[in-house]
Amino acid sequence: VSTQSTGLLQSHDTFTEAMLIFIVITFLSSVLSLDNGLTLTPPMGWMDWERFRCNVDCQNDPNNCIGEKLFRDMADRLVADGYSAVGYKYVDIDDCWLSHSRDSSGQLVANQAAFPSGIKALSDYIHSRGLLFGMYEDIGTYTCGGYPGSEGYFETDAKTFASWGVDALKLDGCYYSEINYQAGYTNFSVALNETGRPIMFSCSWPAYISDDQRALYYPYMAKICNIWRNWDDIDDSYSSMASIANYWGSHSAVLASVAKPGSFNDADQLIIGNSGLNPDESRTQMAIWSIIASPLLMSNDLRNIPTWAKDILQNKEVIAVNQDPLGRQGVRVSGSAGTTQVWTRLLADSSYAVALWNDTPNTSDITLDLKFVSGCAAVRDLFNHNDLGVFKTSFTSSSVPSHGTVM
After folding, report:
1. How far apart are CA 291 and CA 330, in angstroms?
2. Is 135 helix (H, G, I), strand (E, B) or coil?
3. What is the mean pLDDT of residues 274-288?
4. Largest CA distance in the chain
5. Distance separating alpha carbons of residues 152 and 11, to the nearest angstrom
6. In this structure, are residues 56 and 264 in contact, taking their beta carbons and an 8 Å threshold?
7. What is the pLDDT of residues 43-102, one digit of tens each?
8. Whole-number Cα distances in Å, 287 to 2, 90, 265, 294
9. Catalytic residue among 233, 235, 236, 280, which?
10. Among residues 172, 266, 268, 301, which one is catalytic?
11. Whole-angstrom Cα distance, residue 117 to residue 307?
12. Measured at the alpha carbon of residue 101, what is the angle toward residues 50 and 97, in degrees to the nearest 5?
């Protein structure tokens, strides 16, 4: 079921064969492990998908279509407006950048109307700004948007991305057989390794399988992927964001067990600065995403963003929690969806980051029991940048606004 000389795995069509593959892969982990030295902390940057979707109408909407102008504009804003200085480095293209067919030699081709200068020129421009360049493909026959997928072209496409100077690749999971995900993502990981270029590998495999399968495969995913999308795509609303956060809360143990430097669970994009979250709800997303060590990939229009949203996104104290070098994912320790909740994360200096989230429709007090730190702690408010004092036994944050979070 394997070829050790190339590290490639073959696809199979029965559950029994899939389990045999899983056993063989376990023994070959030293051969197949992704070896790029990347994502020692969660990646930070900007991605187009949630805000701009699959807008390919560059003739009538040149400023907002999936084209080189949009990505050059966002690279410029990352640098000029201070985002790159606090860690946001990746500029990532999601779906809908491709032409509808490959060229005569089987190479991927960008939409020429949207990317008239070519992908390599865009990559060079982003690198000239001191940033990193990310792209998207799909493991199946088509991307989710219906463009050419990578099935049958893994090595070819990996070499193409490397030749374009790509620094990150998101590989989606549409139009592919579920039983072949393990072999497919493994083979693409090997193909990326063999290019010799460090390319951060984002896998969408777990988003396409059931919870029990995810729990089984997470330890293996951590060997071949740098980050992986676990669950639903985020939409521009509090309900969507909260459902993702609560999924992380109810699956805290299994998700935290596999997160570490080099491999992180991805809760999807930050929607702060769009129309779906108010300031309190935006602080909640920033806080929870930092507690759970999720990548911080903004999907918004940096050319037109409220000052309050920029301040939340560039909060250095909260970002420091997300980027803590211990790489320990935080967990929900009390509460559930629709209630007040307490989340904690152990940091490298042995302190704890804590998020007190009010997931109710009303203003509420939230109390933190300090037993986990021997009953006494100095408390600092990371959003307001002030020390609150030393507390014994417990700490209560009064009047936490509906959908808001104190961190």
Report:
1. 5
2. strand
3. 98
4. 71
5. 12
6. no
7. 999 999 999 999 999 999 999 999 999 999 999 999 999 999 999 999 999 999 999 999
8. 43, 21, 16, 10
9. 233
10. 172
11. 33
12. 25
| Gyration radius of the chain's alpha carbons | 21
3 state DSSP class of 31: helix
The DSSP secondary structure of 262-284, one letter per residue, reads TBEEE---B-TTSSS--HHHHHH
Question: What six digits make up the tokens of 175?
Answer: 């139009």
Q: Would you call 315 exposed, middle or buried from its count of C-beta atoms within 10 A (0-12, 13-18, 19+)? A: buried
Phi, psi of 229 (to 5 degrees): -80, 125
The residue type at 249:
G
pLDDT band at 156 (very low <50, low <70, confident <90, very high): very high
Distance CA 352, CA 370 (A): 11
Element (H, E) at 213: helix 211-224
Q: Are 288 and 341 in contact (CB under 8 A)?
A: no
Bridge partners of residue 381, in order along the sequence: 386
Instruction: Sort strands 405-406 and 352-358 into parallel, antiparallel or unpaired.
Output: antiparallel
Local confidence band at 32 (pLDDT 50, 70, 90 cut-offs): low
Q: What b/e string do you get for 189-227 counting C-beta neighbours within 10 Å, with b at 16 or more?
A: bbbbbebebbbbbbbbbbbbeeeeebbebbebbbbbbbb
- Structure-block tokens of residue 359: 């997931």
Q: Give the DSSP letter string of 52-105.
A: HTT---TTT-TTTSSSHHHHHHHHHHHHHTTTGGGT--EEE--SS-B-SS--TT
* Predicted pLDDT of residue 22: 45
172 a catalytic residue: yes
Structure tokens at 244: 């993702």
Beta-carbon count within 10 A of 110 CB? 21
Q: Return the bridge partners of 355, or none.
A: 343
Distance in angstroms (rounded) separating the CA atoms of residues 345 and 339: 20
Quick check: is 57 catalytic?
Answer: no
Amino acid at the residue 38: L
Any residues with CB less than 8 A from the CB of 137 and at least 6 apart, and which?
108, 143, 149, 150, 157, 161, 169, 170, 171, 172
Pairing of strands 296-298, 376-381: unpaired
34 pLDDT tier (thresholds 50, 70, 90): confident
